[in-house]
Automatic annotation (TrEMBL), chains A, B:
Organism field: Oceaniradius stylonematis
Location (main, coarse): cytoplasm
Gene3D superfamilies: Aldehyde Dehydrogenase, Chain A, domain 1 (3.40.605.10), Aldehyde Dehydrogenase, Chain A, domain 2 (3.40.309.10)
Residue ranges of domain Aldehyde dehydrogenase in the record: 21-292
SUPFAM superfamilies: ALDH-like
Membership in a protein family: Belongs to the gamma-glutamyl phosphate reductase family.
Isomerase listed as a keyword: no
PROSITE patterns, A to Z: PROA
Protein name: Gamma-glutamyl phosphate reductase
Alphabetized UniProt keyword annotations: Amino-acid biosynthesis, Cytoplasm, NADP, Oxidoreductase, Proline biosynthesis
Pathway: Amino-acid biosynthesis; L-proline biosynthesis; L-glutamate 5-semialdehyde from L-glutamate: step 2/2
Amino acid sequence: MLTRADNANIDIPALMADMGARAKAASAPLAFATPEQKNAALHAMADAIVASEDAILSANEIDMEAGRASGLAGAFLDRLQLDPDRVKAMADGIRAIAELDDPVGSIIAQWDRPSGLHIERVRTPLGVIGVIYESRPNVTADAGALCLKAGNAVILRGGSDSVNSSRAIHACLLDGLQAADLPADAIQLVPVTDRKAVGEMLKGLGGTVDVIVPRGGRSLVERVQTDARVPVFAHLEGLCHVYVDASADIHMACDLVVNSKMRRTGICGAAETLLVDRAAAPAMLTPILDALDAAGCSVRGDKDVVAAWPKATPATETDWTTEYLDTIISVALVDGVGGAIDHIGRYSSNHTEAIVAEDRAAVDRFMTEIDSAILLHNASTQFADGGEFGMGAEIGIATGKMHARGPVGVEQLTSFKYLVRGSGQIRP
Amino acid sequence: MLTRADNANIDIPALMADMGARAKAASAPLAFATPEQKNAALHAMADAIVASEDAILSANEIDMEAGRASGLAGAFLDRLQLDPDRVKAMADGIRAIAELDDPVGSIIAQWDRPSGLHIERVRTPLGVIGVIYESRPNVTADAGALCLKAGNAVILRGGSDSVNSSRAIHACLLDGLQAADLPADAIQLVPVTDRKAVGEMLKGLGGTVDVIVPRGGRSLVERVQTDARVPVFAHLEGLCHVYVDASADIHMACDLVVNSKMRRTGICGAAETLLVDRAAAPAMLTPILDALDAAGCSVRGDKDVVAAWPKATPATETDWTTEYLDTIISVALVDGVGGAIDHIGRYSSNHTEAIVAEDRAAVDRFMTEIDSAILLHNASTQFADGGEFGMGAEIGIATGKMHARGPVGVEQLTSFKYLVRGSGQIRP
């Protein structure tokens, strides 16, 4: 068991710089490890997790006891807790990653030039990825496996509350690497809980870290985005909108709004604001809000909404910028698709927005003019997910516009290089 | 004419923040300007440049006089100087950019999901690009046009020595924007020469700048890479290698080495180091070095090279890390392709490397194991250029692994978003 005292007298900057150098060194051979070798490691990791169920659960119990003793909240303890089903799900998740197409070396584009040169753009790993996460111990397995599949070395920094669980899982990942003769430094777990280690990672460990992925709540992501001196794949929040156009099918609108908001309220793809076309309001507002109400959702409306549907409480300006992650929705009337675009442009976090409409021109305008990572037509915002997109596992969803955007799966954890084949061409 | 005194009493941070906000505001409508509208603006810009030749040359003469008076070096003055041919070349360059395919809205990938959802990944502009450059006034036209073609707003910050030339060219770009009814803030030129303006741009102007592109010498790029708090597309240097394998055709090897080094020595794709397979040395080293010598190139060799070809001077450790940009080459013998990979891994700037070989296994290993932006087989390193790749104009070459790598053309100045089309799908 790791205690705070273990951090005493450790030179954190030196320790972290060494981890960075090791990761960088491991990333070179990983970049051209064969798909078979990487998949053998992944399957061996899954086997080791299944075989180590008892050890993982015992380690987790130590974390749980410490968490209860320090008065952690119930939701936090639930994320921390492992059980045999969750251990099996981790192993299954790793096997699913093994089944994905190997992105490394795949040809993204190729063309011939008048000079006779043949040019290929092929995928390469990014290099070294730093993953900073909180209480969920399964991130250790997911992130480790996903980075390996894409040929990257990874430095994992889990929450201090799950440190024993993460260590037990990490030991299984190391077993898998060893079984496939891959370097142990391909997947490193920061061995100290001192938060200085995070600060070092955000500075890039002497240029060895290519990208940082934070997995956790708003305060973690905010700190990472503010302090990181290296690129970050993340979203701060998912302030997702559903716009119901006057041309919408009313039944579809009710179903999509309720599903977008209520299927799971705690995920980043959950809708937080409903925008209803003023022209649709007389016919559609009440049935949609009744459906939300019947599903257990509270409504905060602008003054027109409150006037039309008195159960709504008045929304304030902060409601338009609040990611509730709860059974609450803010609702405004807008002047057609142009009004929806304006509202979204002002308040959105550029994660995911949906339009419910049958009018092609309104749909085209919504899809063209809004610059969010994911735009949906006649589909629930809850589809904003790498698995639903067919990308397999995802390490998160990015709302930045550089490199990765939307679900960050194995393909988004790669870069590319150009291979140019000639027959002696010199440039005139 | 702008003088240093013009900078007095200007609140640079406020000025630059305002430019950032204007660029951001302009970027929204630019993102969905039609190809026809953008091309109309580009052709009108080219027309304005041709029509304003006298004004541009007069402004340039002011810069040239100031440059001569302050004792600027001849090479610097040559880059600064405009003449009727160079003015025409600027206009032609803009027209060539107009002819490129419009990247915005193009579908990068699309697929169907078992849920019935159809997913498209489509190109979008990046947003706001900051370009920081030195004495070449033509960058004003090239960079302004390229950013516009990709639907981005741009903030241009040219060198203080070319400020009058850049202003005259920028006026033509504004004419073009106005003729096509596009916002003037789409292409802004920083109006002050105070270097504090660069510092503000590197901080990102309050989150409005999405990427910075430095165009200039090593010290500029180094400052930008060190100080920028936003992503940068750049290469610090092009320390390009040519490796001649024992399986190479000797005549091809001579031609490719001489062309890679000597066609133009001052560009980033020029070869700086020649690596010769130890097994090839007895037959090939002397003819290759004789060919370089005949072309006017000095050779700095490791001890084996000096022993075999006494005209070579001994290379020191710093030669392996020096980008000469001159008629000098460093030469080492290596143990086959593995030795070449090791040398390149240690010393390369990850820009461009070439292998001359007929042995397929050696070529595959070189292409697979080296992680540089561009790898060439049996072709000159001088092909490392967006135009030669068929990308049209380029804003530079990037050696980073995030987002853009290799030549940065109009396509690399875009991001993407996902458009998901359904028929009422809710997520179970």
